[in-house]
Amino acid sequence: MESQLKAKTMPPPRRKRITESLITSEIDGLTITTKVSGSGPPLVFYHGWIGNEDTFGMCHEAFARHFTVYRPAWPGYGGSTPLPHFSIEDFIELGKKYIQKLGLGKITLVGNCLGGNIAMEVVARYPELIRRLILIEVHAYFPRYFFPLLIPKLNKILYQTVFKTATGFNFLNSFLPLQQSNGNNGWLYTWEGFERTRIDSALDFLSAIHRFSKGKFASYRETYRTNVPVFYVEGGRSFGPIGEFGKLVNTYFQNLVVISIPESLHNPVVEKPEIFNERVLRALGLEA
User: Fold this and answer.
1) What are phi and psi of 53, to 5 degrees?
2) Containing structural domain, residue 212
3) Nearest Cα to Cα of residue 235 among 251, 209, 256, 258
4) pLDDT of 144-193, one tens digit each?
């Protein structure tokens, strides 16, 4: 009886920590840095407008128990070298070449925010490379409130004032759900993202999304379709263009599963990583 009681009250065994390594890949003269962990079929994370190799750092271990996880940084982000005046088409082709360079075959592709927009285009153009797509809080392309950041000279002043100073960032955070810390051990992930991102790269990303959306978004609702399995993760406080995109996912994706995480605000990957891991892996038929 006593041994049975002990067996019932013993804590579950601790899982062995999964280590990560930093690799670099040379693609078209660019150096792309990537953090890699785990083993199994390949899974690639695309970070959004403000991100780097560490954006998905709080969930890589859970996924690395089932996949070989790749977390690259876009050019000009994290440790990757800049690509001046790039286009979304440049990023799409870079995504294809990245998969081919590493010899990954068909991948699970995960994209959040504006990184999810690029992931969608990789799927549309190169579906043979993608096993499944996981999208997290994606924009309906260019956010209108970013228009001032397209104005030459003024954009750098605004970016420096709003995103690179504590006063400006705290003001912004007062009315946008940027979520400084909640369930993530106090990691100020958005602040760190702005601090680690080159100003020119961040502004070029917005300019590229704006040009792409001007040319395509008007007809997007009627034209974008994919049969690749898509898992769409929505937070609990989706703002503006993200809420707009969420209303259209059933139109865009013919093989869709929606995963709701109302406990988070905009980015459950870093706001509620344990819940994100459990619900997404469960949707994939895997254990967290």
Assistant:
1) -65, -20
2) 20-283
3) 258
4) 778 999 999 999 999 998 888 888 777 766 655 554 444 445 556 777 78
Strands 42-46 and 68-72: parallel
| Amino acid code (one letter) for 109 | L
What are the C-alpha distances in Å from 71 to residues 6, 34, 52, 61, 226? Answer: 41, 5, 8, 12, 24
Q: What is the count of structural domains for the chain?
A: 1
pTM: 0.89
In a domain, 234, yes or no: yes
4 domain-assigned: no
- Which amino acid would we find at residue 243? G
d(CA 134, CA 56): 13
Q: Does residue 2 register a pLDDT over 80?
A: no
In a domain, 9, yes or no: no
Instruction: Report the 10 Å Cβ neighbour count for 156.
Output: 14
Q: What is the CATH number of the domain that holds 213?
A: 3.40.50.1820
